Each structure stands twice: as C-alpha cells, then as structure tokens.
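Input chain follows. Return structure tokens only.
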Amino acid sequence: MTSICVVRPALSARAEGYDVYAVIDASGTCSEEARRISIVRLSRAGVRVADVLGMAAELQAEATGDTAAEETESSHVGVRWPARRPPSRPRTR
C-alpha cells in the first residue's frame, strides 16, 4: 500500500537528508482518498512525487545527456518534468 510501503520509507529517507522520488502509480492503495493523502504528505515533506512514465522520461533524458531540455516545475506536486521536444524528422538518404 502506498501509505505504508512508499510513504514511510520515503519520509525516513528525507529525514536522513536524501533526495527522494516516489513513483506513486507503482504502488496501490485501498482508496483514491488514501492516495491523495499520501501525495500531500510526501509533497509537504519535500519528496518528489512522479508517475512511471514521467520518471522513465526523466531517466532517459539523464542517460542520454540531454541537458538542453528545459525543465518545468509542476505546481501541485513539485515534480521536475523534462520539456517536450519536437518530433524528430525521418532520415533521408
């Protein structure tokens, strides 16, 4: 459950000074209300709340050394999201 298996370790890690990301949809919970409460608790403690696709995009950008992409802050959860890039053009021979 998100409120136990994600919140408790994330808050402990923040208390020890770690920069913590919580991939919120990688864990389940008993209700939407419990999920919202967990997100609020994590956000208030400075944990960066993300979803699987957002984290995958961010990790991919870091792995490819894409430092030119502008990042924006999501105002409701404090998550850094990579800016969208224009679609690549097909290569011509």
